């Protein structure tokens, strides 16, 4: 038995149902005891995917379903991270408890919904890859993809459970950045998750982080073309909106080399201000693309009928000046064709 571990913790993590019930029936049982990591018996049941143990604990009148460990996690957060076949019923049973705090934040300021939208699917896929390789032939790609899809569906189902809870704050923000679950889903291009979140009546898909960067902007900056296309289809986007630094979606996409997104914005957004200049440095999307040596983006920008290649930045430099400085003959030739 580990340091600080009680008999109830031991029974719960191993799923010894009869022992768990016997201990719970004792009049002096203390469900609130924690081990050296701050974990209670409820945590042990969640971490090991022991559904019967969890159900028995939740049925006890003295259970504190929102107890936290040393990292500020609740049993619900642990259950959302527990990668077992029992994960969905674990979370479903916890959400049925009348005292459950579905919006609790851990010490990092993350809620369950944020955690799943940020890294839940990716973490699950990494786990599946490890599990699959341990039991199957690693070169069977078709079988692995099917195996992976089934686990991605689990993450989506977990998010559906959370979003359906009447107390869920779907627009809750991360303490140190102001990012929302929707923001994370856009950042990491989780399309299935985005579609679930779109179904919530109180979702604010435009809610920016503390820097004024919206979910649409972050998707553009990371070349998440599928998410960008979905956002443009589902909601009214002000494609020329700028964050607190004065950067628009097209400016961010050009700075990071988001080729696919730049092409999408140019072809699908007739209201795009392709010649927008940032307030501080007076940079345009074209100036940034040339500065960062993004040839394909320069090509895409030059296809826009309203592109102005003569605009100067704060230092008085044009796109041609920058191309000459960088000795980019390929870009110089492109610019000359548009003069």
TrEMBL record:
Protein name as catalogued: Uncharacterized protein
UniProt keyword list: ANK repeat, Repeat
Lineage: Eukaryota, Sar, Stramenopiles, Oomycota, Saprolegniomycetes
Pfam families attached to this UniProt entry: Ank_2, Ank_4
Keyword Lipid biosynthesis appears in the UniProt entry: no
Native organism: Aphanomyces euteiches
Highest taxon of the lineage: Eukaryota
InterPro entries found in the cross-reference section: Ankyrin_rpt (IPR002110), Ankyrin_rpt-contain_sf (IPR036770)
ANK repeats: 37-70
């Amino acid at each position: 038995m580990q340091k600080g571990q009680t008999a109830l913790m031991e029974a719960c993590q191993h799923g010894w149902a009869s022992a768990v019930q016997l201990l719970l029936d004792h009049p002096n049982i203390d469900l609130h005891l924690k081990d050296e990591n701050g974990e209670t018996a409820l945590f042990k049941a969640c971490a090991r995917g022991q559904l019967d143990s969890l159900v028995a604990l939740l049925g006890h009148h003295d259970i504190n379903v929102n107890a936290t460990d040393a990292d500020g996690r609740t049993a619900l957060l642990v259950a959302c991270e527990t990668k077992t076949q029992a994960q969905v019923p674990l979370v479903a049973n916890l959400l049925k408890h009348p005292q459950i705090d579905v919006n609790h934040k851990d010490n990092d300021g993350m809620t369950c919904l944020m955690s799943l939208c940020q890294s839940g699917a990716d973490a699950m896929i990494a786990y599946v890859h490890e599990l699959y390789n341990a039991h199957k032939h690693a070169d069977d790609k078709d079988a692995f993809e099917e195996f992976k899809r089934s686990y991605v569906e689990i993450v989506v189902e977990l998010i559906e459970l959370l979003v359906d809870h009447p107390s869920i704050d779907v627009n809750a923000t991360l303490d140190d950045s102001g990012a929302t679950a929707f923001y994370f889903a856009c950042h990491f291009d989780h399309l299935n998750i985005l579609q679930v979140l779109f179904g919530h009546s109180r979702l604010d898909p435009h809610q920016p982080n503390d820097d004024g960067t919206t979910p649409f902007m972050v998707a553009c900056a990371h070349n998440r073309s599928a998410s960008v296309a979905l956002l443009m289809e589902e909601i009214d986007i002000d494609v020329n909106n700028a964050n607190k630094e004065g950067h628009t979606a097209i400016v961010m996409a050009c700075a990071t080399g988001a080729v696919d997104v730049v092409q999408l914005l140019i072809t699908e957004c007739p209201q795009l201000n392709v010649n927008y200049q940032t307030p501080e440095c007076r940079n345009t999307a074209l100036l940034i693309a040339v500065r960062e040596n993004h040839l394909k983006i320069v090509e895409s920008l030059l296809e826009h009928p309203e592109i102005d290649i003569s605009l100067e930045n704060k230092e008085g430099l044009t796109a041609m000046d920058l191309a000459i400085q960088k000795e980019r003959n390929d870009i110089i030739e492109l610019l000359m064709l548009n003069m």
